Amino acid sequence: MSDLLQEYKEYYAVRAQRYANNEKYRNSYEAEKKLSDAMQSCSTLDEFKTKMGNLNQLCAVALVKDQNLMENAFYNEYKEIVRAAVSERILEKVDQYQEVMDLIQMTNAEETRGMREISCDEANRIFHYLWKMLDMYEVYSMAVVPSNYQNSMQEGAEEYKNSVAQGAVSTQEQMVHWDPNFKLNPDIVMEHRHRRLLPFTDEHIVEQLQKFKKITNL
After folding, report:
1. How far apart are alpha carbons 128 and 114 in whole angstroms?
2. What would the 3-class secondary structure string for the chain be?
3. How confident is the model over 13-28, as pLDDT tens digits?
4. Per-residue confidence (pLDDT) for residue 1, from 0 to 100
5. Is the distance from CB of 178 to CB of 163 less than 8 angstroms?
6. pTM (2 d.p.)
7. Alpha-carbon distance 29 to 17, whole Å?
8. Inter-CA distances, 143 with 24, 147, 164, Å
9. 24: CB partners within 8 A, 6+ apart
10. Which residue, among 136, 128, 129, has the nearest Cα to 159 in the 3D structure?
């Protein structure tokens, strides 16, 4: 056996071994092991050209599958359902591919779609950013002050109210560039991925939501 052939055999054996006994890379190990076994069965390098077939490309498919399985488990654990949907779609399709370039095209398309979906979903957090404005609107509109201050307090309340309304309008206008059907959905902030960012009681959030929806007509 030539030294070069032996080096190739050792190389492919190591490639497979790096995933051995790692359940998170089970598919990658199986694919790399098949490729290594093909190499180990060769008595000449030329023989490998025939035996390899598309096994090398199937290793890439297996790696994409393992990576997306891990990503999906991670996002589902933290109830990030919009982010998890990207890997779910890739996993539904990945076994259909045997050519790397086709696989890359599919994953790029799904990840690009996912970025748009995540941006649209998180745009609803405009509610989070306008929380203080809602508080200030309430403070100014309900303040009990001497009569000579009433007009300025009401003007202040109106300014805060307009800021809240304009914040929603601006967000809506920006996001339709990503999704023509986009519409702010205030109630979605009660879902875990958004709710976890609000350090308030559910009752307080619902109260603020009612004010937000009344001002914005959502």
Report:
1. 22
2. CCHHHHHHHHHHHHHHHCCCCCHHHHHHHHHHHHHHHHHHCCCCHHHHHHHHCCHHHHHHHHHHHHHHHHHHHHHHHCCCHHHHHHHHHHHHHHHHCCCHHHHHHHHHHHHHHHHHHHHHHHHHHHHHHCHHHHHHHHHHHHCCCCHHHHHHHHHHHHHHHHHHHHHHHHHHHHHCCCCCCCCCCHHHHHCHHHHCCCCCCHHHHHHHHHHHHHHHCC
3. 999 999 999 999 999 9
4. 52
5. no
6. 0.89
7. 7
8. 59, 11, 19
9. 66, 69, 70
10. 136
Closest CA to 143 of 131, 134, 152: 152
Who contacts 23 (Cβ-Cβ below 8 Å, separation ≥6)?
none
Mean of pLDDT values over 179-198: 97
- Name the residue with tokens 């929806």: 213
Per-position b or e across 99-117, b if 16+ CB within 10 A of its CB: ebeebeebbeebeeebeeb
